[in-house]
Amino acid sequence: MPVLQSIVHRLEPSSDNDRLVVKAAATAHPDSAVMSELVAAISDAYNPKPKGWGQFAEGEGASPLAGWLAAYLDGERDFADITQAIAERLAGLLEDRLSVGGYLIFDHSRRGEAESLSLALVQQRQGIGIDDNHQAVPAAQLNLGQLTLAARINLSQWRSESPGTQYVSFLKDRGGKKLAESMLELLGVAESIDAPSETRTLLKAFSDYVEQSDFDEDTSREKTDTLVDYASEQLNRGEPITLDELSALVDEQQPKAFYEHIRHADYGLAPEIPPDKRTLNQFRRFTGRAAGVSISFDSHLLGSSVEYDETRERLIIKTLPSQLREQLKQRQKGT
């Protein structure tokens, strides 16, 4: 992930704690291995977290940041200038929502074939280090584990003006609602995709596809693992799920089959879907076979449609498949 440009500004409370003040860097950060490692570490912390997705809002003045970025990419403003403008705007939005400061780290990087601009507010914590005399000493450390305010803009997708593309993402943790609202206002973004809802719809479409295709147990499990592995890989890379790419992975013999199933059934899914980690973790299937009994169900049903009694080693299935229910009724009538 080559870092094309980066810079660090600092936000800190004013002397009267009435507002946030920007301590801006005069120039972009020089190229260094340490900065590249920091940018990569921030990216790794950002990718799996819950996010909102959208596009710059349309209309004059709806997103000043979009205008600043366009001027930068066109060579009309430099990196330090536009990032300071963004930092000043963010400081004003956070005055009533953030009581402590931190380092605002920007990077313009190339990820694969696309270029992106990322920003993250990283706070510092006190740690312990060892000095040259082998003595334990206080050491300040960046706290990437508590990343709560960050965003990424896929500049290549934005400039290509691909219809329906969700090229802006931002952190949307449950405990950071106000910070997410500040980021939305800063970016001037119209949020248009609910990642958990879209992921649930995709998984529902997949379950319907497997059921209608009448795959055997091993094939169903293999295809489920393929879907979850691909979605998890995209999540870790910070990239969306691409439906046609997923379709080709799910069934190499019929690479368009799953994609056509989604289109014909009209699930309302966009061509690209941001994966949601929590929803994916609930989708792994439980399977087992013994003494003529074969059981397989999606893990997200455990605790709702399926209950496990560990003491008695029993499964309680609350909702029987209609086909199985009819077979049992016919058997009862015949006895």
From TrEMBL:
Kindly list the GO molecular function terms attached to this UniProt entry.
double-stranded DNA binding; single-stranded RNA binding
Short name of one Pfam family: NA37
One GO CC annotation, please? bacterial nucleoid
Q: Where is the protein localized?
A: Cytoplasm, Nucleoid
Keyword Ion transport tagged: no
**Superkingdom as given in the UniProt entry:** Bacteria
Task: State where it is primarily located.
Answer: cytoplasm
Signal peptide location: none
Keywords in alphabetical order, please: Cytoplasm
Matching InterPro entries, A to Z?
Nucleoid_associated_NdpA (IPR007358)
Q: Which family does it belong to?
A: Belongs to the YejK family.
What is this protein's name? Nucleoid-associated protein
